[in-house]
């Protein structure tokens, strides 16, 4: 699978969606459960503070192992798969996300560089976990219809357009 600028933009945007959701959940958690300090800020301390990283640890690995996608990936028709083309196991999804801390420290730039330099669209977490993210959306090169593909269509790199019946064998390549 070739990495296209469109796919990189979709992956980046899906992560922005997901991390915005995580931020909002964290904000509300701190506001609802935290203590109002004399400086006017809410703080969560002690055992309650462990819930905040727990939100991250639950959201990403559970969503990716149960559904193959997070809400951000679902919104942009992306799917996380393992080497067999299935949703990753919980352990794989967790390992896949361990590199997020490094990537987030640099605003995702290491992930973007790595994804744009390998043919399988992988970031460091994908290489370590044996996963990849595929784009389930394509445009027919003949009739330009927007197509929603199955995981198998993407893996086979071959599908027929339901609008014009054109056989397409070069998924992911830019026209």
Write the layout of secondary structure elements.
Blueprint: H1 5-33, E1 35-36, E2 42-43, H2 51-67, H3 71-75, E3 78-82, H4 90-97, H5 100-105, H6 109-116, H7 124-129, E4 131-135, E5 137-139, E6 146-148, H8 151-156, E7 159-160, E8 167-168
Antiparallel strand pairs: 1-2, 3-4, 5-6, 7-8
Helix pairs in contact: 1-2, 2-4
Provide key terms for this protein.
single chain, 175 residues, alpha+beta, 2 domains, two-stranded antiparallel ribbon, 8 helices, 14% strand, elongated
Describe this structure in words.
- Helices cover 49% and strands 14% of the residues.
- The chain folds into 2 domains: 5-135, no CATH class; 137-175, no CATH class.
- The protein is elongated and about 65 Å long.
- The protein has 175 residues and is of the alpha+beta class.
- It has 8 helices and 8 strands; from the N terminus they run αββααβααααβββαββ.
- The strands form 4 sheets. A two-stranded antiparallel sheet has the order 1-2. The chain has a two-stranded antiparallel sheet with strand order 3-4. Strands 5-6 form a two-stranded antiparallel ribbon.
- The model has no long low-confidence stretch (mean pLDDT 87).
β-strand percent reads 5-15%
How many E strands? 8
Uncertain ranges? none
| Alpha carbon gyration radius | 19 Å
Q: List the secondary-structure elements in sequence, H or E.
A: HEEHHEHHHHEEEHEE
Helix content: 40-55%
Average pLDDT? 87
How many discrete structural domains?
2
Placed side by side, the strands forming the largest sheet appear as: 1-2
What kind of sheet is the major sheet? 2 strands, antiparallel
């Amino acid at each position: 699978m070739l990495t296209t600028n469109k796919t990189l933009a979709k992956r980046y945007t899906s992560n922005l969606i997901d991390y915005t959701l995580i931020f909002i959940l964290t904000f509300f958690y701190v506001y609802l459960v935290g203590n109002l300090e004399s400086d006017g800020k809410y703080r969560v301390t002690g055992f309650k503070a462990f819930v905040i990283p727990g939100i991250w640890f639950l959201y990403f690995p559970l969503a990716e192992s149960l559904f193959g996608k997070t809400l951000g990936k679902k919104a942009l028709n992306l799917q996380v798969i393992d080497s067999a083309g299935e949703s990753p196991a919980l352990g794989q999804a967790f390992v896949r996300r361990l590199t997020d801390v490094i990537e987030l420290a640099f605003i995702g730039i290491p992930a973007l560089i790595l994804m744009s330099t390998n043919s399988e669209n992988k970031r460091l977490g994908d290489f370590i976990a044996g996963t990849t993210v595929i784009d389930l959306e394509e445009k027919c090169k003949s009739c330009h219809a927007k197509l929603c593909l199955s995981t198998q269509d993407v893996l086979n790199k071959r599908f027929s357009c339901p609008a014009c019946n054109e056989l397409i064998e070069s998924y992911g390549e830019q026209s």
